[in-house]
Task: structure prediction
Amino acid sequence: MQDLYRTKGLMIRNWYEKSGAFALIKNATIYLDEATAPYMCEGLYKLTNIRYLHLDFFNAKKIDDETFIAITKQISRLTTLNKLIISAKEMTKISDTSIAYLCQAIASLPQIVHLTIDLFGCKNLGDHIFKYIEDEFPKMANLRILSLTFGTSATVFKNTKLTDLGFFSLAKCIMNLTKLKSFSIDCQGLSKITDHSMLEFASAISCLKEISHLNLEFEGCGKITDTTIQSVASKLLGLSELTYLTLDFRGCKVSNVGVSSVADVVVKIPKLKNLNLDFKCDKVDSKGKQILNELASKSSQYRIQY
Result:
């Protein structure tokens, strides 16, 4: 049997019926939809030697809390798992309750090192999900790589349920994940996130002393201003292991002041090799663009948009 087992659609049923093969699988990418998800509720726990699991709800927008929770309860039994990817884009029928069970299940996995959760476009999720993350994620002592997506697109819908209140909880969580080597967060289009919580978030980033890869994407968060950018920039100086950095604040209320603060700091980060910046903002004028141009000229590994 191939080490990486990929399956899609109704093939899940055949795979489930051959459940004796489950114990042989160490790496699996499973694509789910409304028809195949019930089989995962029944058979996922039989992956007794799984190391890498990617659950992709590629066509499962109609799956509700009941089915999603049933699947997450199976995840908690995969004690050999060290890398988990949950792709749940635009699952509009799941609520905060689903994420509560998901967080509890993941936190119970003793060997989890790498975690990716993509909740892009899940419009019924609110601030409680951040509280669940705050409560459960610090329990993962071996977690080193974390990637979270909560954003949305203006072409999908405008998210007003994820606010500063929840983001404060997320910041508290990050403060306790001090062993992270890589952290990525995508909050595109969260219109209720403001400088108020982002200042706390910036302080949390400063606690990640071992971080080497950092990706912060807040495109279209229209209430974020230079105040946030200056705070984030000032905290980057303390991240001496940082080698890869992405800052995407396109469409935010950032001006030359914010751009200048970032440009001044990134050249002082000793190990920084790859830099990606996106400051395509209305308030960044020709002077700000000149600052970014000068920064881009310092290295071929600097990719900057404005």
Notes: Confidence is low (pLDDT under 50) at residues 1-5, 8-13. Residues 23 and 48 are 5 Å apart (CA to CA). The longest strand covers residues 52-59. The two ends are 49 Å apart (CA to CA).
